[in-house]
Amino acid sequence: MKIKNWDKLTITLLCISGVIILFSFISPYIFTQFTSSIDFTDTGQIGDTFGGIINPFIALSGIILTFLAFYMQIKANQIQVEQFNQTIKNEKDLRLYNDRYNSYHHISLLLTDLEYIINDINEKNIKIKEFIELESQDNLVVNTLFRTPSTHYSKILNIDRLEIYKGFSFFIEYDKEEQLKTYNTLYNLLNFIPEFFKSIYDNYEKYSSNFINTKYIIRNDLNILLDDASQIINLHYNQSKLSPKSELDYLEKPEVQICNGLIKRYYEIIDESYNNNLNIIQETDFNKLSELLKLFIIDALHIRKNIANYDRSIEKLIEKASFIRKNIYDAKQQKNIFVNSLKDEYNKFIEPDKGTLANLKSTKEKIALSLQQFDINKL
After folding, report:
1. Residue 129 has pLDDT above 90, yes or no
2. Closest CA to 272 of 262, 261, 280, 264
3. How far is Cα 84 from Cα 379, in angstroms, rounded to an integer?
């Protein structure tokens, strides 16, 4: 309550003092008019008369004015205290307004970043889903998991968390426990999501590197197998030159036929990866290569079973072809293990009710709805 300089008591005391002082000037006449004579010589000295009559009134007025002076000093002190308290209150209100204003904009910035993050997550999820679909196919094609930049994740974590917490206290329309729960949920999600995608991309990089290395090893083993098959063909060709028969008779030998068939079909499969301009249009089909090796092994085993004096060199080819087919199978298993693991993590992340993305969207909507109830001009 504002303290007034001129309250009723002050005005009353001043009026009383003024009346008493005025009354003191006419009091000698009033108190002597009923005497037998107006002649003051009969009632004493004029000065004594005036002094004796006026002094009590002057003294009373002085007492009242002295009291009034002390009272005014008290009032002045009260006014100073009130002004000091009002200044403190104004500063406190200003700080509170500034805190609410800053917190409002911090929460608004938070919502903007959350919207960007949710959109980025949706884009990441599309790319992961496409990768899973491609990787689930029964082949050894190297698929790329494309990623998007994650700068907003670090930006949002760099926002002053104290200001965000203040914003929750000011604008989130829930009890204290619910505010704290929402705040902790938000930052747990914001800390988890970047780590989640980092883990996915790190695992992908590791898997991709191992997968490419496995394919490289398989290609090398295939080249070695073809070299060994060529050596068998050359060996029989050199032997045929020493024979009185036609040099082309060696082409009729079963061992040479299956080796020639292996080499021919291998390069036919390789050629399918190129167009007429010798530009690569697709990766080599390892399923066809595996099927080629399977047929080669069957033919080689047939030779070993039915021909007494077969070329024992094909034993080595059978062993190598079987080993290559096993590596192709293992590469597919490696691929299936990775894609199934990725699929499980991805499905948990996007689960409609309890998934991480659903929780983030729910938290963001909760904050947005609470903030919409406030007008920045009425903070």
Report:
1. yes
2. 280
3. 25
